[in-house]
């Protein structure tokens, strides 16, 4: 009897091993997605950067369809550009695709920052970040954001400004408010200076030798961590309870280390600034080019002021006012679609994955191409046309992904939308602006922005 069981066990094991082998060899037999890998090592990196990256991706999609392979920045990649594939990678099979960034970027932003993690540590950080940025938490910030917006606009009046640079300052100040609260204003100039150096190094060659931009950026990062350590120590001494992101991190029961907090604060400011600033810059360009849309936005914003006057409400904007800005919100959505400032993101397959009969090999990078989904004529007819009314009907699931999707989707999206609405309210009701010089080109660094940051002249309506 015992021998029989042993025999049965051995046969079953052999059968199992053979089955696994068959499945594995089938996996190996699966074809790779269509496409070309280009030259050894450099792959198609030059093709990608020698032209507009969007043209590179669009020509590949046209030739190979919504899933294709390539080789860029030293890695073999699979690029995907259908809503279903984006859902597969970012939502339903998210555990098979980990976020991945070049090691130099991880070092610069801080290895413990939320973007680079999966699992329990990521879930815990995400809970803390969402707590600080959910509508309930940011509602109380409307009037402070409003005063930052008014100060910015007043400072541009009567001179030529680089819209993107000015929007960066605005988005930076709002980010500081939401992340560190109002008390840390004395540090804001030092923080700004460090960020400026960090940013210059972020897009430079990662060579850490004295004098290089990368080296300066690493020093700036160190200084940022020191400033944050000072703020942390003051808050601990004073035993103050803050509702901002830093407060959320500090109130966590399973204590985060100072290094983990610093990496996540630096990362959040980084995630918040250039993204929001480039979207705002595109909004000014599209409104400037579409006078009827600008008129509709202005009317909507003037109605809000008139409504408040009629009711005898305070002049300051409230969260409830921002919920009435339907047309302005459509303009923001359409700008997020057309400009697609984050045109794709990176993941890495943690094991061999089969998708639609193709093999995505373990270790390969996977790039969901948000911009190509947003510019697909099947999903958004006449995709190059700026038409905010297309958002009168909610887009189908997984077709509109300016803030990503799934467990790594943007936790700051409500704040981003709020600060855009507040700025647009004051801009359209009090000022007029004109674009200076040609405004047709695009520059990438790394986010797409209009050429030369969109120089404009702003003047008061009154
Ligand atoms: C219009 C402005 C913004 C855009 C277009 C944007 C877009 C995105 C996208 C696409 C992702 C997901 C990336 C991925 O899946 O790989 C993301 C993640 C993230 N964003 Fe934003 N973002 C914006 C503003 C903000 C703001 C204002 C904040 C914070 C104050 C913020 C904080 C973050 C953080 C912390 C993550 C990482 C989340 C995680 O890994 O779990 N973002 N953002």
Task: Describe this structure as you would to a colleague.
The chain has 462 residues and is of the alpha+beta class. Helix content is 55%, strand content 10%. The chain is built from 18 helices and twelve strands. The strands form four sheets. Strands 1-2-8-5-3 form a five-stranded mixed sheet. A three-stranded antiparallel sheet has the order 4-12-9. Helix 8 packs antiparallel against helix 9, helix 9 (163-180) packs antiparallel against helix 13 and helix 14 (291-311) packs across helix 18.
What small molecules does the structure contain?
Answer: protoporphyrin IX containing FE
Taking pLDDT < 50 over at least 5 consecutive residues as the criterion, the unreliable ranges are: 1-25
Strand order of the largest sheet: 1-2-8-5-3
The chain-level structural class is alpha+beta
**From the alpha-carbon coordinates, what is the Rg to the nearest angstrom?**
25 Å
Backbone shape:
globular
Tally the beta strands: 12
Percent helix range: 55-70%
Number of helices in the DSSP assignment: 18
Sheet of most strands: 5 strands, mixed
Terminal Cα separation, in Å? 99 Å
- Beta-strand content estimate: 5-15%
GO biological process, one term: abscisic acid metabolic process
GO molecular function: (+)-abscisic acid 8'-hydroxylase activity; heme binding; iron ion binding
EC number: 1.14.14.137
Binding site for heme: 410
């Amino acid at each position: 009897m015992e021998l029989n069981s042993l025999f049965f066990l051995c046969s079953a094991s052999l059968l199992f091993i053979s089955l696994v082998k068959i499945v594995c060899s089938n996996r190996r037999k699966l074809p790779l997605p269509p496409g070309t890998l280009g030259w050894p090592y450099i792959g198609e990196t030059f093709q990608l950067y020698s032209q507009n990256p969007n043209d590179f991706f669009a020509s590949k999609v046209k030739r190979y369809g919504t899933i294709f392979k390539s080789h860029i920045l030293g890695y073999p990649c699979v690029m995907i550009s259908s809503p279903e594939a984006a859902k597969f990678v970012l939502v339903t099979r998210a555990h098979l695709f980990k976020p991945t960034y070049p090691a130099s970027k991880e070092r610069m932003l801080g290895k413990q920052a939320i973007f680079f993690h999966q699992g329990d540590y990521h879930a815990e950080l995400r809970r803390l970040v969402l707590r600080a940025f959910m509508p309930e938490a940011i509602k109380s910030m409307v009037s402070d954001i409003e005063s930052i917006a008014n100060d910015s606009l007043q400072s541009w009046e009567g001179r030529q400004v680089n819209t993107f640079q000015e929007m960066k300052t605005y988005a930076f100040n709002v980010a500081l408010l939401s992340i560190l609260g109002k008390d840390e204003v004395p540090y804001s100039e030092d923080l700004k200076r460090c960020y400026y150096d960090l940013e210059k190094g972020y897009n430079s060659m990662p060579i850490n030798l004295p004098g290089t931009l990368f080296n300066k950026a690493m020093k700036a990062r160190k200084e940022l961590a020191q400033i944050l350590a000072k703020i942390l120590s003051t808050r601990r001494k004073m035993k103050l309870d803050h509702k901002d992101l830093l407060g959320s991190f500090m109130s966590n029961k399973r204590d985060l280390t100072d290094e983990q907090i610093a990496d996540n604060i630096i990362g959040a400011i980084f995630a918040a600034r250039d993204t929001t600033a480039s979207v705002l810059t595109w909004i000014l360009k599209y409104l400037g080019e579409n006078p009827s849309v600008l008129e509709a936005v202005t009317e909507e914003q003037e109605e809000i002021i008139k409504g408040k006057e009629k009711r005898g409400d305070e002049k300051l904007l409230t969260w409830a006012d921002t919920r009435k800005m339907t047309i302005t919100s459509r303009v923001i959505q359409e700008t997020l679609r057309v400009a697609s400032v984050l045109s794709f993101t990176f993941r890495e397959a943690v094991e061999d994955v089969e998708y639609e009969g193709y093999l995505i090999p373990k270790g390969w990078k996977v790039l969901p191409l948000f911009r190509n989904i947003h510019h697909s004529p099947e999903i958004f007819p006449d995709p190059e046309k700026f038409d905010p009314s297309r958002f009168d009907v909610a887009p189908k699931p997984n077709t509109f992904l300016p803030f990503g999707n799934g467990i790594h989707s943007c936790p700051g999206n409500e704040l981003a939308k709020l600060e855009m609405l507040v700025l647009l309210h004051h801009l359209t009701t009090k000022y007029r602006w004109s674009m200076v010089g040609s405004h047709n080109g695009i520059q990438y660094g790394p986010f797409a922005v209009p050429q030369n940051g969109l120089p404009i002249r702003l003047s008061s309506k009154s």
